[in-house]
Specification:
Blueprint lengths: L1 E3 L5 E2 L9 E4 L3 E10 L5 E3 L2 E4 L3 E8 L5 E3 L2 E5 L10 E8 L2 E3 L2 E5 L4 E12 L2 E3 L19 E13 L2 E4 L10 E3 L11 E4 L2 E4 L9
Parallel strand pairs: 1-4, 2-5, 3-6, 4-7, 5-8, 6-9, 7-10, 8-11, 9-12, 10-13, 11-13, 12-14, 13-15, 14-16, 15-17, 15-18, 16-19
């Protein structure tokens, strides 16, 4: 599903019962199950999002303003077993981005990969069984997934009340949260990480980097 330059679109549910499933059945080794590009005031909420095929990632938001991913269960994001970084739960950027009350699990690489964002909020999310590529790639040539990665240019983030569980032995030696700048630059602004719970296995050397 691809939304381009749209305003005020809500992909959500109504009524009671189990949340509906969005299942990607097409192999997208360089694509995403759901992608928003340059959208304004759009919401993805209350979905069970999964894939039966290899995908680069489950949900991607590029650019835009005031977009949100809320109360979704994102899981079983399969990787193609190469170094191209496929198997990401959420890849996103933009202005005033909110990622709230989501569960992300059984993904090949990062739970969330965020870059190019201003005023980011990630809260009350539960991430577990991240970097599942490590099970078949203990050398970590393509199993370098973090729980949450802020990469490149970002200004003002707030990460709070998240649980990131990498206590299972096959998680690899990566981080629960990593916050980094572009190589050789110091362009980033302030941020807060608070009230989070980190769980680790003996393989994990750092929880917050």
């Amino acid at each position: 599903l691809y939304l381009n330059s749209l305003t005020g679109v809500t992909l959500s549910t109504y009524g009671n019962g189990e949340r509906p499933k969005f299942i990607c059945t097409q192999s997208l080794s360089q694509g995403y199950a759901i992608r928003l590009n340059n959208c304004l005031n759009c919401i993805i909420s209350n979905w069970d999002i999964t894939s039966s095929q290899i995908v680069m990632g489950m949900v991607r938001i590029d650019n835009g303003k005031n977009n949100s991913i809320i109360n979704c269960n994102i899981h079983d994001c399969l990787s193609d077993g190469t170094t191209n970084g496929s198997g990401i739960g959420i890849r996103a950027g933009g202005y005033n981005l909110k990622i709230l009350n989501n569960e992300i699990s059984y993904v090949g690489m990062d739970g969330m990969y965020i870059a190019g964002t201003t005023n980011l909020e990630i809260g009350h999310c539960y991430l577990h069984h991240i970097n599942m590529n490590y099970i078949i790639n203990t050398g970590q040539t393509y199993s370098s997934g973090d729980g949450i990665q802020l990469d490149g240019e970002w200004v003002n983030y707030y990460i709070h009340h998240c649980i990131i569980d990498r206590s299972y032995i096959n998680s690899g030696n990566k981080f629960n949260i990593i916050i980094s700048s572009l190589n050789g630059t110091n362009v980033n602004s302030s941020g807060i990480t608070e009230y989070c719970t980190f769980k680790m296995s003996p393989n994990i050397s750092l929880l917050l980097h």
